[in-house]
Specification:
The N terminus is likely disordered. This protein has 498 residues and is mainly β. The strands form 6 sheets. Strands 11-12-13-31-30-32-28-29 form an 8-stranded antiparallel β-sheet, with helices on one face. Strands 16, 17, 18, 19, 20, 26 and 27 form a 7-stranded antiparallel β-sheet that branches. Strands 5-1-2-10-9 form a 5-stranded mixed β-sheet, with no helix packed on it. The chain folds into 3 domains: 112 residues, Sandwich (Immunoglobulin-like); 223 residues, no CATH class; 81 residues, no CATH class.
Length: 498
């Protein structure tokens, strides 16, 4: 913003003319352009002016001028950044006050032939304000951004992982309140889906997940299916919950507090006592006709499988049970459920008490983290080596995510290993509550630029749209597009470091 404490312009070559002819403001003209609003003040002769500037408003003093009869005292601009001008008498001159809706860049300059003062107000601006420290190592920020397409509002959590704990967390089964418990008791015939054993993952609001985790702040995490199953990699406290889709980008947090963003592969297999290898085809998902699925306690109490296969229950790397279907999942172990060709030979290779040599190997494409503590995938990647790098085609994202402008959630890593958790508000779904102050959301490319401006050298997209939510100290601080916090499968939560 141009700072001018006092500036008096006079055209010396015409000084004598100006003394003979009074300075008069004849007209105020407004021009609306994609990148700016232009205000033009037309004078009949040479004029002098002195601007008085602050973040809240501009005041233009014309000490020797008068206004023509056609100049109103109130000039409506009716734009989100400038609402109006006020024209007033000030001693022997004029004062024009221009309140600013946002601290914005502008330029003031005078021209001759004809004589006029021009003020250009930029539509493109970025204002960052701090919401203060939540806990040691966690700061909240708000971004107000002007673009040629409209306003964008974003919320930021800047986290130092050496001072605060950050991790993904799953939604848990809903605990009925007193009213729901009473309704269940008097209507036992109303069987719930999860009572049938069909439901293994759940959905809850970001706030509910955060409160259950004793978190101070949280955002929504990765994509998920209608039944709450995470779509993509999720590893919580070294426990693998789900496996990658299309080797998509993931946030990796290692046990030494360092964070990485990288594309990953996961290699899963187990060996028999005779050192025969069996590849695991999936983790915590429905089983197909020729599969080996690993079920962990994150799936639920039982595998939920039907007959037609063989299951090994494993605790402390040893087989503790062999069954045909719907095995109980040990809380300190897992179940290997087999169908097809593997199920036909598995009982020949293992008996109760035999060792199971399990291998789960996370293979980042470029990074080399130490022991991986947490991992949550998303995609596409937004920033790579401090450059915009939107890998939406390589990671097989459809047009609803890849091309549209929408509410967004993203995570980034700064040069000094701070983690940025960012939500961008999108247009409200209900058109009747939209107005010129509504945030219009962002494309992936715009989001990548924002992440770089916030200091990210690496960044990736997370689930967005109606899922986009930021929760801080018991409150939703963004504006969800549905008007309320939608239930999600998982969240990224922040807790005080113990």
């Amino acid at each position: 913003m141009k700072r001018i404490l006092s500036f008096i312009i006079a055209f010396a070559a015409c000084a004598s003319l100006s003394m003979a002819q009074a300075e008069r403001l004849d007209k105020i003209r407004l021009g609306y352009y994609p990148d700016r609003i232009r205000a033009v003040f037309d004078f009949n002769s040479i004029f002098s002016y002195a601007p008085e500037e602050s973040k809240e408003k501009i005041v233009l003093h014309f000490p020797n001028a008068e206004a023509s009869r056609d100049i109103p005292s109130y000039v409506e601009v009716n734009d989100v950044i400038i609402r109006f001008f006020e024209v007033e008498r000030e001693g022997n001159g004029l004062k024009i006050s221009i309140p600013l809706g946002e601290p914005i860049p502008y330029n003031i300059f005078a021209l001759t032939e004809p004589y006029r003062l021009v003020v250009d107000f930029d539509r493109e601006f970025t204002n960052l304000s701090s919401g203060g420290t939540i806990i040691d190592g966690v700061e909240s920020l708000t971004v107000n951004k002007g673009t040629q397409n409209g306003r964008v509002i974003a919320q930021v959590l800047k986290v130092d992982p050496t001072k605060a704990e950050i991790s993904p967390a799953l939604a848990r089964k809903h605990k009925p309140n007193v009213l729901e418990s009473f309704a269940d008791a008097v209507t036992p015939w109303n069987e719930k889906d999860d009572d049938k054993g069909d439901q293994h993952f759940f959905r809850a609001t970001v706030g509910s997940i955060a409160e259950e985790q004793s978190a101070v702040a949280a955002i929504n995490g990765t994509y998920f299916a209608y039944n709450g199953k995470p779509l993509g990699t999720l590893l919580v406290d070294k426990e693998l919950v789900s496996t990658p889709i299309y080797d998509r980008t993931a946030l990796i947090i290692s046990d030494d507090g360092n964070a990485y963003i990288d594309n990953i592969m996961i290699e899963c297999y187990f060996n028999s006592p005779a050192n025969e290898r069996f590849d695991i085809t999936g983790v915590n998902q429905g089983i197909g006709g020729n599969s080996v699925i690993m079920y962990t306690p994150a799936w639920g109490e039982k595998t939920g499988t039907g007959r037609g296969g063989v299951e090994l229950s494993v605790v402390n790397s040893k087989v503790t049970g062999i069954g045909l279907a719907n095995s109980t999942i040990p809380q300190d172990g897992y179940v290997l459920s087999t169908t097809g060709t593997v199920s036909q030979v598995i009982t020949e290779k293992f008996k109760i008490g035999d060792p199971v040599d399990l291998h789960i190997r996370v293979i980042p494409y470029t990074s080399s983290p130490s022991t991986i503590l947490h991992m949550v995938s998303g995609g596409p990647r937004l920033v790579k080596n401090n450059q915009v790098y939107v890998s939406k085609n390589e990671e097989n994202f459809k047009a609803d995510i890849a091309k549209s402008r929408a509410a967004r959630t993203a995570v980034g890593i700064t040069k000094d290993n701070k983690i940025l958790l960012v939500t961008v508000d999108g247009l409200p779904r209900k058109k009747k509550i939209r107005n010129e102050k509504s945030s219009i959301g962002m494309t992936l490319e715009e989001l990548a630029e924002l992440m770089i401006n916030l200091g990210a050298v690496e960044a990736m997209n997370l689930d967005g749209g109606s899922s986009t939510t930021m929760w801080i100290d018991g409150k939703i601080v963004n504006r969800p597009v549905n008007g309320y916090s939608s239930p999600v499968s998982n969240a990224i939560v922040i807790r005080p470091k113990l």
